Amino acid sequence: MGFVKTRKTSYSKRMTQEEELQALREELQAVREENVLLKALVAELLPLREQVEGLKAHVKQLEKRLSKDSRTSSKPPSSDGLKQRPRSTRQASTKTTGGQPGHPGHTLAQVPIPDEIMSHRPHACEQCQTDLHQVIGVIVEHRQVLDLPAIRLLAREHQVKAVCCPNCHHLTLGGFPKEVSAPAQYGPHVQALAVYLHQGQLLPVARTCDVLAEMCGASISQGTLLRWVQQAASRLEPTERIAELVTQSRLLHGNETGIHVYGLLHWLHVSCTRWLTHLSWHASRGREAMQRIGIWPRFAGRGMHDRWASYDAYPCAYSICRAHLLRDCAALAEQDQELWAADMHTFLLDLHAATQEWSTRRVPAMAPIERDEWVARYFEILAAGYAAQPPPLEDAGQKRKGRRKQSAAKNLLDALLPRVTQRDKLISKR
């Protein structure tokens, strides 16, 4: 047979046809066994490959999380550590340093009536050394030093006296003021300072107690401080009044910040205007807490938030916080190399500078031609962003309920697209 002649020289010419067939059968069987082994290995490698892809995605997600700082996320600057400080988004100003022309200034001024006067007069004539103690001097210059007095506790003792009536000889006792209820206690000024440091300056409980002990010798316990805070809160006007006024405002800012309450994660919901701030904590960050607090369900003005989806459940108008948008764009540009995000970051800064200039000139509204140029630039960046996104993957197997998961870039684009319809401002600053 022709194929026998083309086989390798490993087969001997003296081999019979049956021997050659037997050798081919054995070789075919070995190939089949190797094929079965390869299939088994492929079957084992496929799950491992999927696992490796999943681990790669997880590692990439962790790397993104570790690379976030105060400029690309909502993390505070104190969490940046000792690494290189993030670049500031502020652009260099062309103005000179110091006070600008027309600035009123805040130079420290002298008080008209000082609390204490210290005279500095010479004791002898600097020329002939004549004694000048009995000679009346004239004030030629005066300076003032504004300082704090020595901070210490002032002990004011209340004494109840008994007075015997000279007529009927009845012994009548005086009475302590209502607020003096213990043999020794701290007065209202110490209590006010403690509450101010803890609530106004946001010092922790332990540090507030340390400050009072070191500054004025008032050694109070943490329980005493918390009791004073509760007493001060009970004297204030109910917070429902603040919530009512906040609800009636034209512009409302909303945010949620994680806090720990008795070691458990809760959320501090902030609703504030230019003059009022309403704080309320809840175990939920989303709509359950907002319904319970009751501000956003009643609000009918324009809300400013950070793209948290729970706000979209309420019918008021919305704007996105510019600071959050800048951080989101910076994160996409640096971590995912999204070029359109860098362009959007620059666009937002340019738009903010333009609005500042319009405000300085007291221009009520921009010219239609200039507005159209900003809108066109905005849409060009969005179009480039959508074009850079990969096509959506087809769902394998059973379809999941709800919205399909999208990338952070796609979510940001979808949030930016409808904002151009806002006629008053493209983007509002928080």
UniProtKB/TrEMBL annotation:
Domain DUF6444, first and last residues per copy: 17-107
UniProt domain Transposase IS66 central: residue ranges: 185-383
Sequence intervals crossing the membrane: none
Pfam families reported in the protein's UniProt record: DDE_Tnp_IS66, DUF6444
Biased composition (Low complexity): 94-107
Biased segments, Basic and acidic residues type: 62-72
Region (Disordered): 62-110, 389-409
Protein name per the record: Transposase
